[in-house]
From TrEMBL:
Location of the Flavodoxin domain: 4-139
Membrane-traversing stretches: none
Gene3D superfamilies referenced in this protein's UniProt entry, alphabetically: 3.40.50.360
Protein name: Flavodoxin domain-containing protein
InterPro entries found in the cross-reference section: Flavodoxin_dom, Flavoprotein-like_sf, Protoporphyrinogen_IX_DH
Amino acid sequence: MNTLIVYATKHDFTRKCVIKLSKKLDGDFDILNLKENNVSTLEKYDNVIIGGPIYAGQIIKEVKEFCEKNLKELSDKRIGLFVCGMSDKDKMNLFLEQSFPEKLRNNALAKGEFGGSFVFKTMNFFERFIVRHICKTNEDVLNLKEDNIDEFAAKMNTKA
């Protein structure tokens, strides 16, 4: 099976999750960062995994635009959807539901949330201010949910 993993990232956490996920997938795969490249065609892929970070309750715009632009073609693929962020599980599941079109969500073979991180040196002033005041931390935090990535990969590796 050929798999395309498309994602966007702002502070690199999502890319790290994609790398971990790709090592657990069966078959051939390509990885495409939507901030750096455009998707020319989805034709050769059986599976398409789509994900990105949540900021202020919204998925990063490149992911949203990719889904809207390719919705018809994605309808014929085996789909996996994931989000990254630092909210609790229930909120992240709600963000996942709000971030992707209903047609994709209903057809998704795997859906998941992979955690998030706060890395202060990569944040702008406003981001640091928000994290300090809302999350009550001044320190870097890494919350990578490897078990969730493992579960997600297992679902994507099931044969149709």
